[in-house]
Every structure is written in C-alpha cells, then in structure tokens.
Amino acid sequence: MIRHVRPRALALAALLVAAPLPFGSVAPGPAAILLVATLAVLALALWTAEGALPRELGLAAAALAAIALLGGLQSLPAPAAGANLVAPESVRLAAQATAVAGPQSGSAADAAGGSFVALSLAPAASRSAALDWLLPTAGFLAAAALGSSRRVRRTLGGALLLAATVQVVIGVAQWVSRSNTLWGVALVDMGTRLRGSFVNPNHLALFLEIALAVAFAWTWWAVRRTVMGGVDGGRAEDRLLGVGPPAVAFLLIFGGLVLTGSRAALLSVLVAMTVQGVVIGGGGSRRGRTWLLAGGLALGAAGAVAIAALGAEGTFTRLTASSIDELGSGYRVEAAGATFDLFRLFPLAGSGLGTFQAAFPLVQPPTIPGFWRHAHADWIEFLATTGIAGAALLGIGLFFYGKRLRQVILHGERSEGRAAGLAALGALVAVAIHSFADFGMTLPANALALAVVAGAAGATRLERQP
CB of 37 within 8 A of CB of 377? Predict the structure, then answer.
C-alpha cells in the first residue's frame, strides 16, 4: 500500500520517525533542520493540494500562526507610550536597565533615548520561540492538506507507531546494557527509567502518549471490523490477524510508557483512554460495546502481567511511592504559583514568547533556588509569556479545531475516518493533562507528532454534513 502513497506524504512520515532521534530535535541545529524540512513538505503539499481545507482547520492553523506572529511582534521595538498601555512592567524594566547601564545605540531597551521598547524581556528568545511555533503550524497544515486520503492517514499513523517502537527499543537497549550514553553524549543518570533518544524520560513519555492514542484507536477499529463486523470466512486466525497487530503495538508502547517512570504520563493516558472509551460507548450496538469492554479488559490485564514480569522501576512503583505532599505541594506546584505571579506582572501581552528563563527570576521564591528553563507546566508558562492575547488565540484555535473534530468523530467517512478522530481526541486529552505537570511540548518532536495527528484527523472527509 505504501507504493500508492505520494512522496510528499512519505516525506512527512519520515520526519515523524526521524524527529525524536536527535534528542527530540531540541538542539538548535536539529530543530532548524526539522523546521526547514517540514516547511518544504508543507509547500509541496499545498502546491499539489487537490481541494480546499475545511474552514475549521484553516482557522485553527491561522490561530497557531498568529501565536508565532505574536512572538515576533513582542520582540520588535514599539513606541514606549503605546507599550506602556499594554505592558507597563516591560517599560519600567527597560527604563531601569537604561538607568543602570546607560543608553545603548540600537538597543530595544533604549526607552529613554529612543522612546522605543520591546514588549519581550528577551527579544532574541521571543524570535526563536516564534520560529518554534512555526513547526507545529507547518506540520498541522501539511497533514491537513494530505489527510483526506485514508492511505495517507494510515501511513502517518504507522510512521508514528514505528517511531514510538524505535524509541522503546532504544530505551530497552540502554537499560539492558546499563549505558548512560546516547550518540556519544553522556546523559544525566536517571536510573532504570526509559528515555529512548530523549534526554528526559518524561518527554519520551509524552511522545509515547500521542502514539498510544493512535494505537488505541487502531485497536478499536480492528475490533469493530473483525470481531463485531466479521471478516471473510469468520475464521479465528483471520480475526487474530486483524486484531493482533494493533493489540501488540498498544501493549508495546504502553509498556514503554510505564517504564519511563512518568506518573503524569500514566494518569494522562488513563484519562485519555477513558474519554476515548466514553466516546466509543456513546454509539454502536450493545453487543459492540460488550465486545469493546471485554477487549479493553483483556488488554489491561495483559499489560499488567507484562509490566509485572518486567520488574523494573516503572511508573506504578514511583506512583505508589509518592506521598500526597510530594505530588500536591512539591517544588513544581510552587514554581507554577510563581509563574502565575509572573502572569500578573504581564497580564495582557505576557513577558514575551519563550522568555520564561529570563523572566522567572523576577518572581522566583528563595525556597526553590536554581536555574529554571521552564515552568514544568506548559499551560501556565504559555499564559505568563503570552498573556491574555496568547491565551485568546490558542482558545480560538482549539475551539474551531474541536468543532471540526466533533464532526469527524460523529460523521467521519467510514469507521476508519472516525478512528482517526478518536486518535486525535485521545492525543489532545493526554497532552493537555500532562502539560499541567511538565514542559514536554517545548520539544519539537512532540509538537510535530501532535500537530500531524491532529491535522490528519481533521482532514477526514465527512459522510454527510451535520
């Protein structure tokens, strides 16, 4: 079937597999290469597009692009009088810096001499973050332009599952060899936690969550098609061949996620699969729901047996060893509270997209010393750095995408199209929950994976207009 998929779709699939390999593409070099390659795939996809994008997807993509534009605008010098209305704290800090260091020609902080000041506390960081936001925007648009074809959706979904499998294999190989080196680079010792080619196991866990949502939807579609719908001949081996591959993929990825030791990931996927299950249970026959429930229990039992057999320090061990105080009032919660204080200083336009590292010392309490690159809470960090303006843009994008996703799940072409919507729903729910406790979406590989899954699912044709 791959031979019937056009090169532009294969190129996007290849990017999904390759993106996590260089440490999640988090370094400047790999991130730049990934962005350029994704933009090239987008250009090719739009050049050869066979139809217009659904209106909701276009508006969602426009909202993502607007966030990138916001970061660029934050980095530009603006008249101090106008900036004082939008971000008085930025003007005050710029004037304070000028008073201490003296006027500097061409400086964005030259509020006294040139009467111009950037809204961003770190303009260079905001420009870099704006480029980072172009990656999921381009990935989303490219997948949306290509995803109306079910062959393309199969290819992209298969590529994500392959990428997740590769990550689990790399992690297991490191675990077996007790190696703490990847691609010749010595990494911080994380014990027996799997991290694949990511530096942080929690970031691998987020990538696996997205893939697991796809595997769950594939399993539902296979069960519905082979067990509930029947196959030619109705033989047991035919049913096994239909359900076996997605079930194996699900268990493999779920086992890898458990071995990352990420508590937030486990809770996120459980909630996400519950939401997916509720959506599935909302339709279909009673017999179908019974088969799905039985299949889900069987998968869960098999997964528990596999995890117990591995006997590693996985998520369940860390979760049961965590006290309520550790989970509820640890340093991450305190940092999140301080980050919300940062939002109060810059409520309208934020401190500048990508400026958390520069801005956090303004509110960092002495009880959590150290150097903080991120807030360990993507939602709150985004609010603090983009303000109400960024939150409104993101909310608009999610609203229109959610509207389209609902249409796909309810009226998608064939059950396979509805399964694509189910996969996107699970991925979005898992990432949304996990992002309250981590900063995994700042990694380009994770952002691209979620964008491609969402874009391809949203492009599914509808059987009828609701």
Answer: no
The count of residues in the chain is: 466
Q: Bigger pLDDT: 319 or 423?
A: 423
Dmax over CA atoms of the chain, in Å, equals 84
Alpha helices in 75-149 (DSSP H): 80-86, 88-101, 111-114, 123-146
Q: Are 375 and 356 in contact (CB under 8 A)?
A: yes
- Half-sphere CA count of 275, side-chain side, radius 13 A: 20
Helix axes 150-177, 236-259, angle to 10 degrees: 50
Q: Which two structure tokens, joined as six digits, stand for 264?
A: 């937030």
Please give the torsion angle defined by the CA atoms of residues 104, 110, 115 and 121, in that order, rounded to the nearest 10 degrees: 160
Cβ atoms within 10 Å of 5's Cβ, excluding its own: 17
> Of 108-117, 237-246, 348-357, which gets the smallest average pLDDT?
108-117
For the segment 152-181, the average pLDDT, to the nearest whole number, is 93
What type of residue sits at position 456? A
How much is the pLDDT for 302?
52
> What is the token pair recorded at 7?
């090169």
pLDDT at 228: 58
Which residues pair with residue 117 across a beta bridge?
Answer: 78
| Alpha-carbon gap, residue 207 to 331, rounded angstroms | 24
